[in-house]
Amino acid sequence: MPPNESANLQRQFDVLLDHLPAGVVVHGPDGRILSANRRAKVLLGHSVEELIGAESSQVVWSLVRADNTVMPEPEYPVNQVLSTGDPVSDLVVGVPATPPGPVRWLICNAYPERGRDGRIERVVVCFTDCTKLKLAEHRAQQSEERLRLVLRGSTDASWDYDLRNGEVHYSERWWEMLGYRVGDLPIDAHTWQKVLHPDDFRRVTGFLHDLLGGTTDSYSVEFRMVHRDGHAVPILSRGFILRDEDGLPLRISGTNTDLTERKQVEQRIHELAYFDHLTGLPNRRFLAEELDKVLARSERSGQFGAVLFLDLDNFKLLNDTMGHDIGDLLLRQVALRLKLALRHSDQLARLGGDEFVVVFEDLGTTLEDAIAEANHVVDKILEVLDQPYHLDGRLFVSTTSIGVTLFEGMGADVDTLLKQADLAMYRAKADGRHIARFFDPGMQAAANRQSALETGLRDGLARHEFVLYCQPQFDTHGRLVGAEVLVRWRRDSGVLVAPGDFIGLAESSGLILPLGRQVLEESCRALARWAGDRALGKLKLAVNVSVQQLRDPEFPDEVARILARSGAPAGQLFLELTESIFADDKQDLAERMHLLCGQGLRFSLDDFGTGYSSLAYLKQFPLTALKIDRSFVHDVHVDPSAGPIVKAIIALAQQLKLEIVAEGVEHEAQRTFLARNGCSALQGYLLGAPMPIAEFESLYSATGIGHA
Ligand code: C2E
Ligand code: CA
Ligand code: CA
What we know:
Blueprint: H1 3-18, E1 23-27, E2 33-36, H2 38-44, H3 48-51, H4 56-59, H5 77-84, E3 88-95, E4 104-114, E5 120-129, H6 131-151, E6 157-162, E7 167-170, H7 172-177, H8 191-194, H9 201-213, E8 218-226, E9 232-243, E10 249-258, H10 260-274, H11 284-301, E11 304-312, H12 315-322, H13 324-341, E12 347-352, E13 355-360, H14 367-386, E14 389-391, E15 394-396, E16 400-408, H15 414-430, E17 436-438, H16 441-462, E18 466-474, E19 480-490, E20 496-497, H17 503-509, H18 512-530, E21 540-544, H19 547-551, H20 555-566, E22 573-577, H21 586-597, E23 602-608, H22 615-618, E24 625-628, H23 630-635, H24 642-655, E25 659-662, H25 668-676, E26 681-682, E27 691-692, H26 693-700
Parallel strand pairs: 16-17, 19-21, 21-22, 22-23, 23-24, 24-25, 25-26
Antiparallel strand pairs: 1-2, 1-5, 3-4, 4-5, 6-7, 6-10, 8-9, 9-10, 11-13, 11-16, 12-13, 14-15, 18-19, 18-27, 19-20
């Protein structure tokens, strides 16, 4: 090769060398440096002038071995090659920085270049920076060391899983924690899964999956494992993952701590913090948190709720005269009675002393309903707490005063409500004790009226103050085809009360059951009485029945008894139900209705279109007739949209093969419209107002039984 060309090639080669990411240093046979590339200068921290002609020991003041000890000069890579003639590979060497700083770690390879005669002419040393790798390794070693230190003498269990070779290790304590001896189960990477609590399986395996794929190196997770004897052991598992440079996991190690004791302590702390130790009832703090949730639920449902503040009337006296132990006994019994008297969903708490709080939900969406319901629970609570107590062999009577406040939604906060109920309770004490008072004076007045009315209802039932009115029903040709029984309350003052003013209260107080029974008994007697009459003998008689009556499992038997006793023809009896049945457990009610149909009577659906109407529901119940609500009838001749609605209802009823009765017919125009569109029967002031049953009989009977 011509000298020119050779020099050219050498230059190109030097340029190439200079761009190499590895340091390259070429030594002569005497160990002195002949040339060095750019990376070598950077890594060794010297200029060309300093390097060329120097010996290794002059360039670096002392090399360090991988274990941080000083390397003697004969061990320097170039010297090793010169003395042994063999290459040196992958030797880790530390180069102290100039000026002094952290050691830079290099991986070195060195090899000899020999002449034709076999003598070493040059030694080439290549090296790359591995400082980062070395540091990572160091840190990993330290963590392992620390873990080992921590585990020595600890009650924690440890485990280790080497993902590279699949080796698994569970410490003796690991097995012992779960009631096993080492190796009682096959030891592999899945052993822990076999003792993982089934309910935590998905969560933990998911967590582990995320952890292995993620970038965090340490973790801490709680789960349960199953002890050999079957009980769950709460575990805190902590550990770390070793990863390679690309982040792939190499190894996972960790410790498991048995949390059983800690959990028990936590539970105890929770009990102390949230429960009253004497009665075991929730305390004020717990109540406040629960009440918060109750208010949020009320906000969503639009239902009223009530907070009752209870205070025993003579507790202090009992405590002072009979001692605290007896006082405690009473408090415990009061707590127990309350617990038994309340529903599971009601909240009960003891605030301290002889003060208890009860929170009720779902008292209805109107204030009237809520007041009636609240009155009820108050009566029930007063009654159960009034019963004599057996205290250490002695009988003791205790009465209670109750403050009530109602809430709807989140208008008032927890503190405000408790304060209101507390104030109301003081009112009750001031008004003579052993009673309940509402916080709101308006509510109090309403509550007073309602409880007076309820007492009146009860007395009225006993004194047979409820009388039946009858309203006639006609077909479209004007022939009398039936009648509806409508109850009135003739109070001893002579006032006639309309059902709208007492049916609601009768329902919420449960009095609807005896009232409904009276109405049905009397209606059946009328049907039996009419049997021989040419005009009345074929009439269908409709009796309104509250859904509460239908809910009563005794109802079918009761109806059967009434029919049998009166001798009424069941086939002429219609029970009118409102759409509120659709809000109930449909299956149950439908079955009960079928049972009743078996006795021959039939059902019609009252006030159709005002409630929960769903066409799908109609088919689920055994119905014979549909009554179009009077609000629709009222509008047929005034509101252009009412006509089509009524037509649609009629078409629907016809499709379902139901009879259609229109109620509230007051005008000729309504009658014409309804008759033309296929109504089966009409009822309303136009054709006949409700009248006392005797009047009805004398007006319509062919034989004049009404005068009998
Ligand atoms: P309802 O079953 O819809 O009864 C029809 C109501 O409409 C009756 O009111 C009746 O007097 C009234 N009415 C009749 N014709 C017309 C009319 O042309 N125009 C207008 N505007 N109204 C008319 P009442 O007697 O006051 O009864 C009210 C509700 O009380 C009844 O509504 C029914 O839901 C309930 N009710 C009545 N008696 C009983 C009963 O014995 N048991 C039960 N559970 N509820 C009853
Ligand atoms: Ca009715
Ligand atoms: Ca009706």
